[in-house]
Specification:
- The complex is a heterodimer of chains A (702) and B (186).
- Helices cover 14% and strands 29% of the residues of chain A.
- The N and C termini of chain A lie far apart (52 Å).
- In chain A, strands 23, 24, 26, 28, 29, 30 and 34 form a seven-stranded mixed beta sheet that branches.
- In chain A, strand 2 and strand 3 form a beta hairpin.
- With 702 residues, chain A is of the alpha+beta class.
- In chain B, a hairpin with a 6-residue loop joins strand 12 and strand 13.
- At the A-B interface, helix 1, strand 2 and strand 3 of A face strand 10, strand 11, strand 14 and strand 15 of B.
């Protein structure tokens, strides 16, 4: 007994020491402020800070960064310390910063049109810290069986586990140690080293130094188009690492009585033999792509300057990664006078950079796990609160009459509180009516002068709820503080997101918003109507037939697009389009309650019509005649169920496919739905190859 | 706090199966000097299921552990209420008079670490009388040592409305911050 008591005492003292150290760290970042306002609502709120930032190197016309995926115990406000994955980034010439004490989004990446993005992505996550990894090599359960996550004790009658319940691989939560980076909102190549979300980078926390190879790739300035264009040493090293991984995975599986996984080396070799890029990498991947400048004459269209973002996009773990916080802003600025950023900064005399006049809001819900992997009815505290740049209700300080540019990024998973309702000008944006707002861009694409004047979102014309940010949506707004001092809470659906404390001397001279807005670049003018006879391509968001409600009854919904889950009928391309084609698609939502945010990579689209069901076969409709808003995420309104009759929500979009061919995805941006099947494989082929090469060697869907 | 005692009797030991609302916090007390034979859940590591579990525990709607081969070992599973705020509007007080102890935080596991205390006292006419660190002149926070949360004690010295907040971490790593408390002193 005495031995036991000693052991207990020892254990407790270890815990105490650890937490004492943690609390000292926490205390060091607490800010004590003298408040001169009579309102006390923001008591204890931390000061708002933009995320850290990596800027492109102007003289080299490139953003050259290292982005590490690492893990550690981090404080989630109002939750506690949890083991989480985080992005830790830096300019490649800088030393690695320490992992912070608290959660935070990845660093903001800032570059200009016409520059190159060169990001060495290093997956250094320690998989032993996380259960259910695809690459599970532990001798400790729970094992994933190299398939779906598996949680709980199987039902003695059905043999089913609480999770995955009836989810079927690969449309289930799985493989959370593997990752890649999606550059959401970029118009660039989806293949090779570009915005390639089909590549899978497995973790290697003790990886060798690949920087010499990466310098060789990046310093040439020429984007490798083929696997054989990469340095031979890097290719050989990667193949060796994949082979070693296969050997270890097979041995781990055998030792633990599991079926061995398919060798990845063989899959890579098959791809390479066909002249394609391998799909599996170990530890390191050199992302490298252009930001096409529409004024360069080299591109049919180009990249819209604006608020884009990046996040991990490995199928099966996109939602867990976004809950861990693996996301950050990607700000692409204009390259010349008259462009988006130049116009705004010149109007306000802000100089060549925004400085404190710009605020970047990364809205996130941090949670170490999926709610579906918790018992029914139990939800993580972290997933029910929206943090701003990792902070709980931070406070911005503005002077009376001051104008700032606010860039909102909804980097939540998209359920519940993750739908950010900014509201309308009439009712007050974020329920803060003392402030004045004007929206300047949606999803990283500037408004046309007509839309700038009409404010289709903030006026309530598009939706009575005003500016609503579904998961993946972005919005830029210019905001002007009121002349009276005081503290105002900014709320989404009644819940405080952040505060603004207006204090100090009024700004002089007083300036409001531009009265004349910049013209759109030519490639952002309205797309013409597709020709007569064009069939509107349907994309139907669905769950299994017969279901009328969300929830576990007894299993969670099977999310599908056009009657099937991702890859359900094999590795096939679901949507194939000819390069430069012009099409209208009709997005339909056959599920109740949930507005599924449709997102397609590589090219934005224009919103032609939104039909929101109001009853059986009745709709309220938004259908502008022109000046269609560009977006890359649009929430498709939920259906109304009347008995067996379904009245689907509907959005008509118009899009074209210039500049880049390749293979990528469209999906629901409620990322748990994407992971669980609501995704399609998309390909753009040269016109001469359409449709003959649409199904040539599609990538694996895992 | 709920506690499930675990004892061993025989070659194969089965933990009592315990139903756990995972919004609660679970803490395994290990009485075995050979840590590896037991659910080695360090502070808050079990947390919401199924965060990285011990080598022998399979997270489930219920937590159950089977640990063969170890005899005469003892342990306990402590289940704590979530760390949460209570009484954000405190009972009104009288200037210069001791207040009745009032609980402001419940649940969690001792010891509690308090940081970031900050207060304002608003007087007549909505004017700011005083502000700074602490929870206001005459008032103190009293973290309990027996998992019973945090109390407010003391004798308010100013007339007006005390507003205060603080951050608290408990011994399982749970965190609570930016909860606003109000005490009116007349």
């Amino acid at each position: 007994m005495k031995k036991n008591e000693l052991a207990l005492a020892s254990r407790w003292s270890r815990v105490t020491v650890t937490l004492f150290a943690a609390s000292l760290l926490a205390a060091s970042v607490v800010s004590f402020r003298t408040v001169n306002s009579s309102a006390a609502v923001q008591l204890g709120s931390p000061p708002f800070t933009n995320p850290s930032e990596i800027r492109s190197r102007p003289s080299e016309k490139r953003l050259r960064a290292i982005m590490e995926l690492i893990n550690g115990e981090l404080l989630i406000p109002n939750v506690g310390r949890q083991e989480l994955r985080q992005f830790r980034g830096r300019d490649a010439a800088q030393p690695a910063p320490p992992l912070g004490n608290s959660v935070a989004p990845g660093p903001t990446l800032r570059a200009k049109l016409g520059e190159q993005i060169q990001i060495a992505f290093l997956n250094k996550a320690d998989e032993s810290k996380f259960p259910y990894s695809f690459v599970t090599g532990n001798d400790k359960p729970p094992f994933s069986d190299f398939g779906c996550d598996r949680v709980g004790v199987p039902d003695p009658q059905t043999g089913k586990f609480p999770y995955p319940a009836s989810d079927i691989y690969p449309n289930c939560f799985h493989g959370s140690s593997t990752a890649n980076i999606h550059f959401h909102g970029t118009h660039t190549s989806p293949d090779g080293l570009g915005d390639n979300v089909l590549v899978q980078v497995l973790p290697d926390p003790t990886q060798q130094d690949f920087s010499a190879f990466f310098n060789q790739i990046y310093n040439s300035g020429v984007i490798p188009q083929n696997w054989s264009d990469l340095p031979e040493g890097f290719r050989n090293a990667q193949m060796d690492l994949v082979a070693k991984h296969d050997q270890k995975a097979a041995a781990d599986a055998q030792r633990n009585g599991l079926k061995p996984p398919e060798p990845l080396l063989k899959k890579n070799q098959e791809k390479i033999a066909r002249g394609q890029w391998p799909q599996y990498f170990i530890g390191a991947f050199p992302n490298f792509f252009d930001i096409p400048d529409y004024s360069s004459g080299k591109f049919k269209a180009g990249q819209a300057p604006g608020t884009q973002w990046y996040h991990a996009h490995k199928h099966g773990s996109t939602s867990l990664h976004i809950r861990n916080g693996l996301a950050g802003a990607l700000i692409i600025e204009s390259s010349q006078e008259g462009g988006y950023d130049h116009f705004i900064r010149r109007f306000y005399n802000w100089g060549d950079s925004y400085g404190d006049h710009e605020k970047i809001f990364i809205f996130q819900q941090y949670d170490p796990m999926q709610n579906l992997e918790r018992p029914p009815g139990v939800f993580g505290k972290g997933s029910s609160q929206v943090l701003v740049n990792g902070n709980f209700t931070p406070t911005i300080t503005m002077r009376p009459g001051e104008v700032q540019l606010w860039r909102f990024v909804n980097a939540t998973e998209g359920n519940g509180a993750g739908v950010i309702t900014a509201g309308t000008s009439k009712a007050g944006v974020f329920e803060a009516p003392q402030f004045n707002f004007v929206q300047t861009a949606q999803d990283g694409v500037q408004f046309s002068p007509t839309n700038y004047n009409a404010q289709p979102y903030l006026s309530g014309a598009v939706s009575g709820d005003g500016l609503v940010l579904a998961a993946g949506n972005r919005a830029d707004v210019l905001v002007k503080a009121p002349t009276q001092t005081g503290t105002v809470a900014f709320k989404s659906s009644g819940t405080i997101l952040f505060y603004v404390n207006v204090q100090g001397a009024a700004v002089t001279p007083d300036k409001t918003f531009p009265t004349t807005w910049m013209d759109l670049p030519k490639f952002l003018l309205d797309l013409p109507m597709p020709g007569y006879g064009d069939i509107k391509n349907p994309v139907r968001f669905q769950w299994e037939p017969g279901r009328t409600k969300t929830g576990r009854k007894p299993d969670p919904p099977h999310f599908m697009i056009n009657d099937k889950q991702f890859g359900e009928t094999g590795d096939k391309v679901d949507q194939c389009m000819p390069q430069n084609g012009l099409q209208e698609w009709v997005l339909e939502n056959y599920t109740s309650s949930i507005a599924h945010p449709f997102h397609i990579h590589i090219n934005p689209f224009q919103i032609i019509q939104i039909d929101t069901p109001t009853g059986q076969n009745t709709y309220s409709t938004y259908a502008p005649k022109n000046n269609f808003i560009w977006q890359d995420v649009i929430a498709v309104p939920p259906a109304i169920f009347t008995g067996t009759q379904i009245t689907p929500g509907r959005v008509t979009i118009r899009q074209t496919y210039p500049d880049f061919t390749g293979t990528f995805v469209l999906h629901c941006h409620i990322l748990a739905h994407e992971d669980r099947g609501m995704m399609q494989l998309v390909r753009i082929v040269p016109l001469g190859d359409f449709p003959a090469k649409c199904q040539d060697n599609p990538p694996e869907h895992h | 706090m709920k506690q499930i005692q675990i004892t061993r009797d025989g070659g194969t030991v089965t933990f009592e199966t315990v139903s756990v609302d995972t919004t609660e916090n679970v803490f395994f007390v290990n009485l075995d000097p050979e840590d590896e034979h037991w659910p080695t859940i360090s502070a808050n590591k079990l947390g919401p299921f199924p965060s990285p579990p011990s080598s022998q525990c399979i997270p489930a709607a219920t937590y159950g552990c089977q640990i063969p081969g170890h005899q005469n070992e003892q342990g306990a599973i402590n289940i704590f209420d979530p760390l949460s705020e209570t009484n954000t509007t405190l009972q009104p007080a009288t200037q210069g008079q001791p207040i009745a102890d009032q609980q402001v935080v419940t649940g969690g596991m001792s010891p509690y670490q308090i940081s970031g205390e900050i207060f304002q006292v608003i007087g007549p006419g909505n004017t700011l009388i005083d502000s700074g660190s602490g929870i206001g002149p005459g008032l103190q926070l009293d973290p309990t040592s027996d998992n019973q949360g945090i109390l407010v004690k003391g004798t308010p010295t100013l007339l007006g409305t005390y507003n205060f907040t603080f951050e608290v971490d408990d011994a399982m790593g749970s965190n609570l911050q930016q909860v606003q408390y109000t005490l009116v002193v007349t």
